[in-house]
Amino acid sequence: MKLNILKDELNEAIQHVSKAISYKTTIPILSGIKIDAASNGITLTASDTDITIQSFIPLEKQDKTIIQMHKTGSVVLPAKFFVEIIKKLPSHYIEIEVSENYQTTIRSGSAEIQLVGMDPEEYPMMPRLEENQVISISGVVLKTMIKQTGFAVSNNESTPVLTGVLCNLKQKKLKFVATDRHRLATSTIEVDTDAELELDNIVISGKTLNELSKIIPDQDSVVHIVAADSQVLFKMESVLFYSRILDGTYPDTSKIISQNYQTELVVKTKLLTDAIDRAYLLSREEKTNIVKLAGEGERSIEISSSSSELGKVKEEIEVVKLTGEPVKISFNSKYMLDALKVIDSEQIVIGFTGVMSPIIIKPDQDVDMIHLILPYRTVN
Amino acid sequence: MKLNILKDELNEAIQHVSKAISYKTTIPILSGIKIDAASNGITLTASDTDITIQSFIPLEKQDKTIIQMHKTGSVVLPAKFFVEIIKKLPSHYIEIEVSENYQTTIRSGSAEIQLVGMDPEEYPMMPRLEENQVISISGVVLKTMIKQTGFAVSNNESTPVLTGVLCNLKQKKLKFVATDRHRLATSTIEVDTDAELELDNIVISGKTLNELSKIIPDQDSVVHIVAADSQVLFKMESVLFYSRILDGTYPDTSKIISQNYQTELVVKTKLLTDAIDRAYLLSREEKTNIVKLAGEGERSIEISSSSSELGKVKEEIEVVKLTGEPVKISFNSKYMLDALKVIDSEQIVIGFTGVMSPIIIKPDQDVDMIHLILPYRTVN
Question: Per the database record, which ranges form the DNA polymerase III beta sliding clamp N-terminal domain (chains A, B) (predicted)?
C-alpha cells in the first residue's frame, strides 16, 4: 500500500470513525484503525464491538484530487497515536507507505513517522446486512428524535434493555421510546416507506445513538436505516454506522399514556422552565430533587421547594390556562427539566390524572412527542 | 440588614470571591459567603484559610445607583446555593432582607427565596497588614510573570515550599522563581519602588497565584502587593486578595544558571515547538516523554523520539544559528513544551553546557525570562 492524501480529508474521516475506537479493549487489534486502500478510494474502520464505524474517502471530490493511489493494500494502525499525529502534521499533504511486516511510514513536510502496523487479516469482518428492509429518514429529524428521547434511558446496567431506545415501525409510523421506570419519553414521525414494513423490539443503546447523533451532518442529509437480526446499520453519505441491537424484550409502554386529565395546565415553556430551574437548585442540595407544583385558581400556579438546611424557594407563575380540579403534586425537578429542555414550542400542556399517576408533558402544538414523569408520594 | 441591589453587579462580585470558597471545609462557617452591608456599600468575603478574597460594591458607580441601602448589617449565606441562585434570578433587581436569627429573604421578580443565614460573628477576622511595604505593579505584567513561572512549581506536597513561586525583591528588581527540581522558570522585572525595600523568601502557592491571575483584570490596572510575616495581600480596584505565605526556606537557585555555553542554538520558536509537539505525542506513550535533539552542522537539527511498541518520529528542522560543539541530548519533551508555550518571541536561544547540565531556554530578545530543564541521561 502506498498513497498520497490531503490531510484535511483524512482527518475528517478519522474524526468520524474515532468515535468507535476502543481505547480500553481486551482485543488488541481493535485498538487500531483499519485502512483499506482500494482502486476507488480508502475506507477507514474502527470498532468497539458494540459500534463499528466505516468512513470512505474517494479519490476525487468535485473534480478535486484527494488521493493519489500508487499501490492498494490494507493495514491496521495504532489508533490513539494515529488520530493525534495526523492532526499535527506540518504539511497539507501526507504520504502513507506500508512495507514488509506492516511497517508503515508517514511523511509530511519534514516529518517522518515510522509506525508498527498490524495485520488487517486479524481485524473482525463486517456483518453483511440484507438490505431489503430500509427506512429512509432526514438526518435532522433523526437527530431531533434522538435528542427528544435519548436522555430518558436508564443508566442502570442491571436491566440492559432499558439503557436503550426502542425503535418501532408500524403503518409508516416510526416511534422512539425511552424509559428508566421513573419517566418516559416518546417521539413519533411518519416515514415514507413500504406500509408493510414493520420493525419490532429494535432497541439501540442510548450512548450509541448519542454518538450517531454527533456524526449525522447538520445540513440536509438522508440516513438510511437497515435493520437485521442483531445489528442495525445507519447509512450516511460517506459513513456507515453499525450498532448492536440490545438483547431482551422491551416492556410494553403503550397503555400507560392516559388521555383523560383531571387537570390540564397550559403554560409558557420558558416561564415554567426558569422557575423549576431555581427550585431545582435548592432541591438538589437535598439529593431528592423534589419540587412542588400547586394550582387552584385560573391564573397562576406556585412552584416551590425546600431544604431543611438551606431554606425555601417559592414562586408564583402566570398560566395560560388551568382547567379541571385543583392540583398539588411533587416531582423530580431534574426529570422535569430534562423534558422541558427538549421541547421547542413556546407553550406546553401538562396533564395530571391523579396524585400517583404519571404527569404528562407535551408541546401544545405537536402530539408526536410525549413525556411522562412519575410523581413523588409526599406528605401534605 | 435590608437592601436593594442590581443583579449584575452582585453577580460580578460573587464571581470574584467565589474562587476562595471552600466547599469541602471542616469549618462550617467557611462554606458561606459573608456579606457586610455598611453605609458606603457592601463587602463580600470568602475564604478557604489559604486564600481570602474580599470584593467591595459601592452604592454608586459613575452616577449609576447600584445599591439602595435601607438598613446596614451582616450575615453569612450558604455559598454554593447563593452563588448559583443569584445568577438565575428572574429580574435585574434583587432585594435582600435579613430578619431575626439571620433568616434571609431574597426577592427578585416573582421569586422569593428564604435562606438560613449564619452568624457573621463566627466568621474569622481578616488579618491586619501593615501597609508600609508596598510594591505597585501593572496587573498585566503580574499576570505574565505568573504565567511564565507558575507551571514549573512542584506538584509534590512532600516539599510544600516547592509547590510555590518564590517572589524576591532586591534593588527594585522583582524576581519570580519556580522549580520542581527537574526544571526551573524565572521571570524578572524592574519595579518603581523604594530602592531600600527588599522582599526575601516570600513563597506563594502556585495554585493561589493561578486563582489570582483569573481575578486580575485584562485592562490597564495596578496591583499593590503588601507583604507581611505570614500573609501577602494583593490589592486591586475593588478586590482584596489575601494569600498565606508557604512555610519553609526556598532553595538557593541563583548559581545554577550558567552563562558559558558549549553549544548555542538559535531557532524559530514555532518550528521547534511544533516538531517537539509531534515527537512528544509518541514519547508520551512510553510515559517517559523522552525526545532527542541532535545537531552537528550549521543549518539544521534533528528532533526524534521512539517507542518500542509504536514506532519512531524523526524530523529535521532548520536553525537560525548553531555555534559551538556538536550537541546530542535527551530531555522531557513535556517540560520543554511547557517552557516554549510561555515564550512569545519569534526566536529562542537554547544553551547547552554539557550532557548532564541544565539546558537553558530563553527568548532571543529578552533576558528577563530564563527556563532550565535537566536533561535525561540516556544510552547513546
Answer: 1-127
The single residue listed with the C-alpha cell 440484507 is A130
Give the structural domain span for A320.
Answer: 263-373
Q: How far is A297 from chain B (nearest CA, A)?
A: 17
> Do B234 and B293 reside in the same domain of the chain?
no
Residues of A in contact with B116 (CB under 8 A): 309-311
User: Which residue, B122, B149, B168, sits at the end of a domain?
Assistant: B122
What angle do the packed helices B269-285 and B333-341 form, to 10 degrees? 150
CA distances for A10 relative to A58, A77, A166, B379, angstroms: 11, 14, 34, 37
Q: What is the mean pLDDT of residues A261-273?
A: 95
B364/B267 Cα distance (integer angstroms): 9
Q: Could you tell me if B155 and B227 lie in one domain? A: yes
pLDDT one-digit tens code per residue, A91-124: 999 999 999 999 999 999 999 999 999 999 999 9
CB contact under 8 A, A313 and B85: yes
CA A169 to chain B, closest CA, distance in angstroms equals 42
Interface size between A and B, measured as CB pairs under 8 A: 96
Per the structure, the count of domains in chain A is 3
For chain A, say whether B91 makes contact (Cβ under 8 Å).
no
Residues A290-327: pLDDT tens digits? Answer: 999 999 777 899 999 999 889 999 999 999 999 999 99
Please tell me if residue B285 touches chain A, with a CB cutoff of 8 Å.
Answer: yes
Cell of A374: 412519575
**Spatial separation of the C-alpha atoms in residues A281 and B106, rounded to whole Å:** 15
CB of A317 less than 8 A from some CB of B: yes
**CB-CB contact of A183 with A335 (8 Å):** yes
Collect all residues with Cβ–Cβ distance below 8 Å to A274 and sequence separation of at least 6.
B88, B90
> Cβ B314–A113 below 8 Å, yes or no?
yes
Instruction: Say yes or no: B16 and B93 in one domain.
Output: yes
Give B-chain residues touching A112 at CB under 8 angstroms: 313-315
- At A167, give phi and psi (nearest 5°): -115, 115
Residues sharing a CB contact under 8 Å with residue A249, sequence separation 6 or more, in sequence order: A161, A201
Confidence of residue A379 (pLDDT cuts 50, 70, 90): low
- Is residue A128 in a domain? no
B151 in a structural domain: yes
**Residue A298 forms part of a structural domain:** yes
Best of B310, B312, B317 to disrupt the A interface by mutation (most A CBs within 10 Å)?
A: B310
Q: In whole angstroms, what is the distance from residue A57 CA to residue B163 CA? A: 50
Nearest to B228 by CA among B208, B244, B248, B212: B244
Return the CATH number at A139: 3.10.150.10
Q: How far apart are CA A363 and CA A324, in angstroms?
A: 19
For B134-154, write each residue's pLDDT tens digit.
999 999 999 999 999 999 999
Round to whole Å and give the CA distance between B20 and B143. 18
Strands (E) in A16-150, as ranges, are: 32-38, 41-47, 51-58, 60-61, 64-65, 67-71, 73-78, 93-98, 103-108, 111-116, 134-138
Which one of B116, B277, B278 has the shortest CB-CB distance to A309? B116
Which chain B residues are Cβ-neighbours of A114 within 8 angstroms? 311-314
**Predicted confidence band of residue A285 (pLDDT cuts 50, 70, 90):** confident
Grid coordinates given for A57: 474517502
Within an 8 Å CB–CB cutoff, is residue B28 touching chain A?
A: no
A85/B278 Cβ within 8 A:
yes
In a domain, A303, yes or no: yes
